[in-house]
Amino acid sequence: MAGLRFGLIGTGFIGRAHAIALKAVGTVFGIEAPVCELLADTTTDSAAQAARALGFRRSTGDWQALVADPQVDVVDICTPNHLHREMALAAIRAGKSVYCEKPLANTAGEALEIVQAAEAAGVRNHVGFNYIRNPMVRHARELIRQGGIGDVCGFRGYYLEDYMRDPATPWSWRCQRSLAGAGALADLGSHLINAVHFLLEPVARVQGKLQTVYPVRPDPRDGRPRPVENEDVARALFETGSGIPGTFEISRIAGGYKCGLGFAVFGTRGTLTFDQERMNELRLYTDGSPPGERGFRTLLAGPEHPDYAAFCPAPGHGLGINDLKVIEARDVLRSFAGEGDPWPDFREGYRVQRVMEAIEQSHAAGGWVSVPA
Amino acid sequence: MAGLRFGLIGTGFIGRAHAIALKAVGTVFGIEAPVCELLADTTTDSAAQAARALGFRRSTGDWQALVADPQVDVVDICTPNHLHREMALAAIRAGKSVYCEKPLANTAGEALEIVQAAEAAGVRNHVGFNYIRNPMVRHARELIRQGGIGDVCGFRGYYLEDYMRDPATPWSWRCQRSLAGAGALADLGSHLINAVHFLLEPVARVQGKLQTVYPVRPDPRDGRPRPVENEDVARALFETGSGIPGTFEISRIAGGYKCGLGFAVFGTRGTLTFDQERMNELRLYTDGSPPGERGFRTLLAGPEHPDYAAFCPAPGHGLGINDLKVIEARDVLRSFAGEGDPWPDFREGYRVQRVMEAIEQSHAAGGWVSVPA
Amino acid sequence: MAGLRFGLIGTGFIGRAHAIALKAVGTVFGIEAPVCELLADTTTDSAAQAARALGFRRSTGDWQALVADPQVDVVDICTPNHLHREMALAAIRAGKSVYCEKPLANTAGEALEIVQAAEAAGVRNHVGFNYIRNPMVRHARELIRQGGIGDVCGFRGYYLEDYMRDPATPWSWRCQRSLAGAGALADLGSHLINAVHFLLEPVARVQGKLQTVYPVRPDPRDGRPRPVENEDVARALFETGSGIPGTFEISRIAGGYKCGLGFAVFGTRGTLTFDQERMNELRLYTDGSPPGERGFRTLLAGPEHPDYAAFCPAPGHGLGINDLKVIEARDVLRSFAGEGDPWPDFREGYRVQRVMEAIEQSHAAGGWVSVPA
Amino acid sequence: MAGLRFGLIGTGFIGRAHAIALKAVGTVFGIEAPVCELLADTTTDSAAQAARALGFRRSTGDWQALVADPQVDVVDICTPNHLHREMALAAIRAGKSVYCEKPLANTAGEALEIVQAAEAAGVRNHVGFNYIRNPMVRHARELIRQGGIGDVCGFRGYYLEDYMRDPATPWSWRCQRSLAGAGALADLGSHLINAVHFLLEPVARVQGKLQTVYPVRPDPRDGRPRPVENEDVARALFETGSGIPGTFEISRIAGGYKCGLGFAVFGTRGTLTFDQERMNELRLYTDGSPPGERGFRTLLAGPEHPDYAAFCPAPGHGLGINDLKVIEARDVLRSFAGEGDPWPDFREGYRVQRVMEAIEQSHAAGGWVSVPA
To answer: Considering only alpha carbons, which residue of chain A is nearest residue D143?
Structure first.
């Protein structure tokens, strides 16, 4: 059987990560390698150059040609947020399987439109939430499911980076609501909300507070102050459907944090903590030791944990961020072949979006806001 | 000049810590040692035994006799929370200086009554918030004041312990509102709120959520389930008077945490983090290094930090929790001698109480609740 | 230009890592991808199966056919240690470029034979020491070269794993001198010695002590005790050529350590520490801060560090062990194209072997043993 | 019963620590407090001033008067190393119990002279090795004794500080052999050797290497270079009496380390690690968890560990360096009352000294040197 043929749109940070993952996934998992068929970028030239660098067979400066191309089985969308909707809808119309980066759209309304189109058309779909592919995050989920920390009774989640901490960092599309949607909430918070959904269950109620520390940034064209239209920091209290409470803290201006996505899951019989900056570690506290010998254990990722062994048979040697994308590519290939779990699909992308909007509404109105069921 | 003569009421956990501190403070700081004059406990016998063990000159089974004793200059209140009010008011009436453990009272109303009595009587007063005496916490404050992390734009505070995590832990006075006031909020959260006041400024608005994971606990008399009347966990969003936002997470059932009082202070030019479980460390991120060589620095407590040198001339050798009480005793002695900063005084105890009540009100009503000015 | 065509011998742990790296290196670095031309394994069937799984064009059960194959430019040797010599010599005779895993051979004598053959034949050659490809290790070297920690005056090196800690772990070829050469010293210590050579300069004198904690292990065929012929642990004092002293500690039975390759480099103006289990971190102490604000900084790998940006433009997101092999593959491609640094070449493999032998001699004889120049 | 009456000689770093401990020990342990009877310093005035600051009843500028004073039961020697011998011998002749700081003397010969005098006179004696009083170090020892990590098969010990790292740090008595004896080995290494004796058993053979990075330092009188007569760094391989091998690394110029006394104890069933800079933690690895959930546990000091509860009933609140001296004072009081373990006595001080001398001899001669039995 020939591998699925990918058409990749976008060659920035995340587009390159997709390309690297598509190259490696066959060898890592010993499965049929996908075909890097067609690459679209903003111009014919830049697309051709990227195709050479990233190892794609063909290239185009016209993403619509890519969507229409009969040699493309999967449309893989790695463009800035505001382009997701139009491209996803076009790909759905063309009957392609669609793999889209997070956040799915800029508003819950747009996300719902995409979900409904995909479900109506019956096309397979997937959102690229890479952090939940981490073997240690998956192991955390299994531990929770098996009751390893008892009943979950609390959650702390944070995602801290500092890529916009410097007030001299210029204004970019990320600062404009029509292009980026929310700020830190969309870029970083979407991962965190997805992690709660992955580890526990959907978020049902929120009480949030947004903060824009730098209301203007220098326009890269002329250096003049230009308004920032979304938040630098989001904080929230939340509850899941069954009533598990928690906190969120999400920032793009938290000095010193580079990929500070982390959580603590509190249970009636133990605690789990994780931090992506030490992505090969999971800290676990349980009572299973005599008094005087209890303490948080630092578990190092190894072949006992999901998917690790495909990368390395020896424990503790360490996976990297791109390896998470390789696992995700495997998940996408399985899902698009009708095997395995299609989650996180577009509907999950929509659910995440609704939680984000509820936080924004709570910020505006005060008090608890329910996430529509 | 003779040292101040202390009358200590209460010989439990914190009473012993006071006694140890009173013995050491003179030698550590090279100042006039206070006199361990009189000790009160619940019976004549237990008081006599404790006085021998803790090195007090005299003892009594009647705390009112202690308050009235002419050889006592300072009444030092280390009893369970619900006794603070009556004892403090009596000591104030007797014109004594009063040193009271946190929380000052079980309600903001009672706390205000004590404050007003003390201020009307003109007696000196102090609340025992020991964690802010830590040289590294004081250093954090100085760094913040000096602009070492720029303008403060966010705060994360948590205080996690697990002393009531086991559902089999029996019901105690800590579970009864009339004896303990709030639960985790009063016992642990009071320290955290005080830390915000110490490091930044008063908390002005809160939005909170309380949680009682174990609504009943076995009565120690007969093992039958007895209702727990206060919260195991408190979470809140808050803002200070000038609008700095933050989060609180406070738990007495957080598995694996033993003295997990910590904070992160986010500034426009850096970040500070602290955790009492590693109380001799402060983590600091600033930009003062070339790219590629930036990162959180782990500062080890040393003689460059406030008060450390009184304990040890060599850096990194480590202070302990009881040393914080020694610093506090020095602060009390100074303050009661009319030197140095009388803060945290009873009024601060009252302010902390009001923040706690505002969190409780927000839990009940939803939405933001302002702390009365 | 077509990519170099690789013939890979061996499909175990490290052979798969080579295959994964060869697939990814073109896309990661935007260079001409090497061709996965031919795969040799012990039988025709296993080779065919591995070729499918790992994405090689052709396969063979006869490694000598691979060496002779005119479509193969590079012979990539990933077999157990005792096979390196014969295969490398054959590849050299065939005029191929040779890429061989560490350790180069089982004795210094064999290693020298290989070096001399390669140098006489003028074929390009490279040894697979992957840990020194780590961006943080390379950054450490640059810092040292630039005088960032002053003059180097001491070194601590360790490599701790526990893969043979359980006495029930069966006897394997790793326990037999004729197959594996030394024990922990060859498998793990070779990396550590190479790291000293990379970071500082060649080791010149050693004083060593070997230890075999489990002198027999169960034979996998019949469970009967079978003698272990090499060491579980090696410890040594050493000096480099210019007189920098240091210590080595190398163990395959150190409970809890999974990839505990680490070092501390002490300089007259600072200290650097690294541990592969936290491979994305480098800890650096220098005096460049005011008193009271000095401490070890934890540098997180990012695009400011060598080669990181090829994998990810965002700092702190984390590389993994397989990414080090991708960097190594890039180094091999450059080196075999006559560009870039051919080091670590076979001669370095030989130098490492001599240090290992000197440690063994010192163990036997006591006292300092010089490494022949 | 009245408390033992102490005569303290020396009021520097360690003398103050003794005074603080003597003040606190009665209250902490609920035992008869020792009496701070007499303090000797170099002049009448400085002694009087120190006595006031440290809370001693009387003072003298003549240590021989202190030794002869009939109100003094215990002579407590906290002076620079080279004075220990004369003072200890005088105190022994006076029939006093003698409590002397480490190292006992400047040479093994002198140490033996003191031991023989004390044993001949039958006076009680004790050496002040404070780090082994740490509840976590004691717990480590208990775990080892109980077989918690199986049979011990290796040890790594280090003691790193940086108090002389700056070449501008002036010459002091610590640099002169006749005053200080060895350098880092005596000041720091003595603790480490004692820790091996405490945790395992006596060191029997060593192979060592000394290093003086700064052979001259500025004379504080005139700034001119003055020779440093002892080592900045000592490294050694060692074996205990039963053949457990290990390494030592001891430095007074290791940048960034402030109290870096640490060890790893490797056993056949687990590993223990400790570092004094995080003195309230012990890291323990054992197999007692399912695969996938194994890892180093961080044990936080608490009332389950020896002596902790005397300071604080709540776990994780943290002891400090001065608390170790309080435990030591309790040990001394017990031992001088004929109760409890008199170890580490002067004979242990002598054994430590012999190991230090063996390391020096090995440095000079090369090869293994046995420590005389």
So the answer is: A293
